[in-house]
C-alpha cells in the first residue's frame, strides 16, 4: 500500500510567453526558497497534465516526463499511467 508521502505531485504546463516551452514542476519536491516562484510560474502557464508518481520509480518517471528541448514533446498519458502504478 502506497502512502501519500510515497508520491510526488507534478504538473506539466506550457509557458504563455513567446517561447511556449513545456515545463514540469514537482510540487512535492519544492523547498521554501523556490516554492512561491515555481507555483506562480505554473499558475501563469497553460495547464497540460498533472498527476502523481511513486517515489520508488521517480527517476524513471522523471526521465520520461521531462520535455525534450529539441522537439518540445511531452510524454503521453498512457505512459504516465503505467509509471504511476
Characterize this entry briefly.
With 85 residues, the protein is α+β, with helices and mostly antiparallel strands.
Fold and architecture overview:
By secondary structure, the chain is an alpha+beta fold. The chain has one domain (4-84). The chain is 31% helix and 26% strand. It has helices at 35-44, 58-65, 77-84, and strands at residues 7-14, 22-26, 46-54. A 3-stranded antiparallel β-sheet has the order 2-1-3, sandwiched between helices. A hairpin with a 7-residue loop joins strand 1 and strand 2 (22-26). Helix 2 (58-65) packs antiparallel against helix 3 (77-84). The longest helix is centred in the middle third of the chain and has 10 residues, at 35-44. The protein is globular. 9% of the residues are buried. Residues 70-78 have low confidence and may be disordered.
Amino acid at each position: 500500500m502506497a502512502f501519500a508521502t510515497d508520491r510526488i505531485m507534478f504538473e506539466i504546463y506550457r509557458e504563455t510567453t513567446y517561447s511556449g516551452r513545456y515545463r514540469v514542476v514537482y510540487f512535492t519536491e519544492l523547498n521554501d526558497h523556490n516554492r512561491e516562484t515555481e507555483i506562480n510560474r505554473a499558475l501563469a502557464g497553460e495547464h497540460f497534465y498533472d498527476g502523481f508518481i511513486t517515489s520508488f520509480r521517480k527517476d524513471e518517471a522523471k526521465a520520461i516526463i521531462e520535455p525534450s528541448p529539441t522537439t518540445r514533446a511531452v510524454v503521453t498519458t498512457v505512459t504516465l499511467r503505467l509509471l504511476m502504478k
